[in-house]
Amino acid sequence: MKNYEEWNKYKFEIEKQNPFSSKYMTDDGDIFYVEPIFYTMLCSFKEHHPKEIERILDEIDRVVKVNHRVVFTGNYEHPLTIVSDDFIILEIFDITDPLNIFVEDKSRGSDYGD
Prior knowledge:
alpha/beta, 5-stranded mixed beta sheet
């Protein structure tokens, strides 16, 4: 886990049961986790849309404030973070798609088939 600079304004906490996730607590008592793959994907948005990163971070803050307990994961079906059922699990696209900020995924399978 790493204390990411984007969330320096929040209290960072190390949690043994979630060694790969960065845990943050707001002054209001809201809790959120950032998994490494989510952060990697966020960095991709920074690279492709540097002027939009503040909007993305503001939306992350808004989502935490509204939902109080959030895990930001790379894979909704298989999050790394172990939490109780009162947490919502979100991927980067849950944040960026409503903002109409997209990074095109050009990876695809081979066009050569049998």
